[in-house]
Specification:
Elements: E1 2-9, E2 14-15, E3 20-21, H1 26-40, E4 44-48, H2 53-63, E5 69-72, E6 86-89, E7 93-99, H3 105-110, E8 114-122, E9 125-133, H4 146-163, E10 170-175, H5 184-191, E11 195-197, H6 198-202, E12 232-237, H7 238-242, E13 246-254, E14 260-261, E15 267-268, E16 275-282
Parallel strand pairs: 1-4, 9-10
Antiparallel strand pairs: 1-16, 2-3, 4-6, 5-6, 7-8, 8-9, 10-12, 11-12, 13-16, 14-15
Helix pairs in contact: 1-2, 4-5
């Protein structure tokens, strides 16, 4: 059977009742988000940075006819934000949230970053999917600083240690804040072990990116001086490819269009990231 998975960092982070936003126009973008995601017709939708319950409920209600099953956790580490990971699926499933043991001091108290491990009941077997969002350095660390890379390395190692306990077919997907040419040593923690990036398998040497500092939403970002980068990925076990359980077919970077009307009269993209739309052949 064909299986389509879409992953997107929705960029809906805001504090203090919306007074502080990392990417502007949160309210306008979240209203438009389900309509744009519906066009992609995914079987599994993976989202990061969906922090507020009314945002979750809006997305779920608007996509319920297409993706009737939702998985997320409202867990808070200490203070501040709930976890921002969310998964919608055509198939029922269950899952658990695992908070990262390593984090910058501000994220340790104000954020609840981690990974959500789900098991989905497909028509011909179970599929394991891990949704993750590693640190970009918090408020004060540069995303590619040595300290941010060390923290991210610990977070990725925690994911890899958990993945070794998972039997059956597994996908790891989300915002790694690492990729070809950017914090590449963190990216290689996956690719030097048992995982391949589907986009890189299908587009060797690709210079496409999923985060662009020239995007209007990023021009006031704390990371506006960073280069364009492809940091959103779908990773597949090499053994799952070799066994024929999953075969990558297509991988397309999408949601690049400026479709959200904002008060200035201009239009912006639905997120400060672009989405990654991957299609696979699933044998189960």
């Amino acid at each position: 059977m064909k299986l389509k998975l879409v992953t997107l960092n929705a960029g809906l982070l805001s504090f203090f009742g919306g007074l502080l936003k990392f990417a502007p126009f949160v309210e306008e973008r979240v209203i438009e988000l389900p309509r744009q995601l519906r066009k992609l017709n995914p079987d599994i939708l993976i989202l990061q940075e969906v922090y507020w319950q009314w945002h979750r409920e809006w997305i779920i209600s608007e996509l319920r006819d297409l993706l009737p099953h939702s998985l997320y956790s409202r867990k808070i580490r200490h203070l501040g934000l709930e976890n921002g990971l969310m998964m919608l699926s055509k198939m029922p499933g269950s899952g658990s949230l695992h908070l990262f043991q390593a984090a910058p001091p501000d994220e340790r108290f104000l954020d609840s970053k981690g990974f959500f491990a789900a098991n989905l009941a497909m028509s011909n077997g179970n599929l394991n999917v891990i949704n993750l969002h590693t640190t970009a350095g918090g408020f004060w660390l540069h995303p590619e600083s040595s300290k941010a890379n060390r923290i991210r390395a610990s977070q990725i190692q925690q994911v890899l240690d958990y993945a070794r306990t998972v039997t059956g077919t597994l996908l790891i997907t989300g915002d790694l804040n690492a990729g070809p040419g950017v914090s590449e040593e963190n990216f290689r923690q996956f690719t030097d072990t048992d995982y391949d990036s589907i986009h890189d398998l299908l587009h060797p040497g690709s210079t496409e990116f999923t985060w662009d500092p020239e995007n209007q939403l990023n021009r006031t970002s704390p990371h506006k001086t960073c280069p364009p980068q492809r940091i959103d990925h779908v990773l597949i076990r090499k053994t799952d490819i070799q066994s024929g359980r999953l075969q990558p077919l297509t991988s397309v970077i999408c949601c690049r269009e400026e479709v959200v009307a904002v008060p200035s009269g201009k239009k912006v993209t639905v997120s400060d990231h672009f989405a990654l739309n991957v299609e696979m052949e699933w044998e189960g």
